Amino acid sequence: MIVVLKNNATDVDVNEIKDKITKLGCDVHESRGSDYHFLVLVGDTNSIDASSLTIYECVEKIIFDKEPYKKSNRLYHPDDTIVKIGDKKIGDKKLAIIAGPCSVESKEQLLSVAESVKMSGAGFLRGGAFKPRTSPYSFQGLELEGLDLLKIAREKTGLPIVTEITSTNYIDRFVEEVDVIQVGARNMQNYDLLKQLGKTNKPILLKRGFSATIEELLMSAEYIMAGGNENVILCERGIRTFENYTRNTLDLSAIPVIKKLSHLPVIVDPSHSTGLWWLVEPLAKAAIAVGADGLIIEVHNDPENALCDGGQSIKPKRFDELMKTLSKLAEIENRTI
Predict the structure, then answer these.
(1) What share of the chain is helix, strand, coil (3-state, %, to 5)?
(2) What pLDDT, in 10s, does the model give residues 103-139?
(3) Structural domain boundaries of the chain?
(4) Rounded CA gap, 243 and 275, in Å?
(5) 3-state class of 170 per DSSP?
(6) The pairing of beta strand 266-268 with beta strand 83-85
(7) 89 has which bridge partners?
């Protein structure tokens, strides 16, 4: 339910209505722009009699919504959300490029890749310290040692670090040491984890699950935002279909759809989406063309001997060439890298 307010609504009027809504058992989210001002009711709105709110003179009208997601809904937040990470932003005209190895393997490997992607123009460094894998016998990451190496790489290059959290056990440490906390596809519906992340104020990169619908992705974002953390970045990384030539099928149509439904920034992962390094470039270009706010790309200096997902990683030289191409494409789309 949305309470649309008249332009002449005073702060006294608004506070009175907000108190009324709270007493009726719902939370209220205020959204105000140059040409709009409304209150969004979050909770069990079915039990609220709309006439109890329309009696206020400052109320223009009541809108009944059908979507279950509220805080991530563009209807309640018409302006695009821009997530700030230090002096960098995700969601504005400048495309966010996150690059680095799938897994942190050693200090030498990480620093080599970090320095090269920075020289090519990447704004963030990705690297997995904790690696949830399908097989329990596969490399699971260096864990806390990997996190320490990421911090060293950030100190050397100045690049903010993006890395995946896999459980609630290390939330305090991630909040203190990581710039952007990634929630992987396997944990998109780990609601206990999402609730805890909602209590933080850290930017959260939320990846779409293997078989998740767009609405389910937005509802997962809602869990984080309902807790008070509205610094959410969505990531399309491919979904599971009947096609088996590629690891997943990149749903490029999801980007403009999410942009229509939600105000949250959306980035694309062209590496995990297919599992094939030679598809990274065309999919990265396509992602920018359909309106993505950035890319997260796996780059490895020795993919043939990578401990994880070497087949989908591109080498630093190819990444450098790709960045030059993307810069030209970004200009066409009225954006920059």
Answers:
(1) 35, 20, 40
(2) 999 999 999 999 999 999 999 999 999 877 777 767 7
(3) 2-63, 83-332
(4) 13
(5) helix
(6) unpaired
(7) 84
The superfamily in CATH containing domain 2-63 is Phospho-2-dehydro-3-deoxyheptonate aldolase; domain 1 (3.30.70.1140)
Looking at the predicted structure, is the pLDDT value of residue 34 above 80?
no
Give the integer Cα–Cα distance in Å for 35 and 336. 28
**How do residues 9-24 score in pLDDT, each as one tens digit?**
888 888 888 888 888 8
Bridge partners of 90, per DSSP, are 83
Q: Among residues 309, 292, 280, which one has the least CA distance to residue 93?
A: 292
DSSP secondary structure code for residue 95 in this structure? P
Reference 316, options 329, 327, 303; nearest CA is: 303
Of 35, 45, 42, 43, the closest CA to residue 78 belongs to 35
The domain 83-332 belongs to what CATH superfamily?
Aldolase class I (3.20.20.70)
Q: What is the pLDDT of residues 144-203, one digit of tens each?
A: 999 999 999 999 999 999 999 999 999 999 999 999 999 999 999 999 999 999 999 999
Give the whole-angstrom CA distance, residue 78 versus residue 31: 9
126 and 153 in contact (C-beta within 8 Å)? no
Strands (E) in the chain, as ranges, are 2-5, 27-32, 37-42, 59-63, 83-85, 88-90, 96-100, 124-126, 161-165, 180-183, 204-207, 232-236, 266-268, 294-298
